[in-house]
Amino acid sequence: MSYAVKELFLTLQGEGVRSGRRAVFVRFAGCNLWSGREQDRASAVCRFCDTDFVGTDGDGGGKFPDAAALAAAVSDCWGAEAAERYVVLTGGEPMLQVDDALVDALHDAGFEIAIESNGTLAAHPGIDWVCISPKAGSEVVQRSGDELKLVWPQAGTDVDALEEWEFANFLVQPMDSEAGEENTRTAIALVLERPRWRLTLQSHKMLGLR
Ligand SMILES: C[S@@+](CC[C@H](N)C(=O)[O-])C[C@H]1O[C@@H](n2cnc3c(N)ncnc32)[C@H](O)[C@@H]1O
Ligand SMILES: Nc1nc2[nH]cc(C(=O)O)c2c(=O)[nH]1
Ligand code: SF4
Ligand SMILES: [Mg+2]
């Protein structure tokens, strides 16, 4: 299978439990909860997306003809260091494209594989670190993993129901929007009410990283 990748870059994981870790990010093109076009945002299932995932024209992006080609690009981007090789598959929605061949090729290249997914498609069982970020109004089928990252606030979210899901970590991330500061305050209030949850901030945005 070929893969449509918007951009591919080296940075630090900015979000979640593994925030601060050196990682290659592969941002797959396309999402099943929004077309990515501004004129469709108001009618999309997911309306707060902070990301351009349309097309393959970003830095390091392109159409990769097969898993070996994409794994080679990830490896080149990481560099020679053999230890702690770490790749984050994101998007758009990565589970629209991630398959056995890609998971095997990345593992063969020595990478630990993380995913950032909206959870509407089952995560590939070979992925080593599963982060699911549920979207109100969508049907989440992937209800287990390493971290559940709830962007807050989202009207229509049943937080009690989310707490029944099988995640090792429950994180709340303020929604980046015009109401950003208020969103941070309400996220803090959620954590103060519910000790099981922890606050995570999008540190890459504060640090000027991608
Ligand atoms: C762009 S999404 C791509 C992966 C996948 N489609 C998903 O939604 O999880 C990457 C992460 O950014 C989060 N995110 C998107 N827009 C955001 C915003 N405006 N504020 C805070 N987090 C946001 C998502 O919830 C997700 O955890
Ligand atoms: N530095 C950095 N960390 C991230 N963690 C999750 C991201 C994403 O867009 O999936 C992201 C991102 O876009 N940049
Ligand atoms: S599901 Fe993820 S990529 Fe898709 S629109 Fe929402 S935040 Fe953006
Ligand atoms: Mg991002």
UniProtKB/TrEMBL annotation:
Q: In which pathway does it act?
A: Purine metabolism; 7-cyano-7-deazaguanine biosynthesis
Q: Where does substrate bind?
A: L12, Q13, G14, R27, T90
Q: Which residues bind S-adenosyl-L-methionine?
A: F48, C49, D50, G92, S133, P134, K135, Q173, P174, M175, D176
Enzyme class comes to lyase
Query: What EC number(s) does its UniProt record assign?
Result: 4.3.99.3
Q: Which residues form the Radical SAM core domain?
A: 18-210
Quote the protein name from its UniProt record. 7-carboxy-7-deazaguanine synthase
Protein's organism: Stakelama sediminis
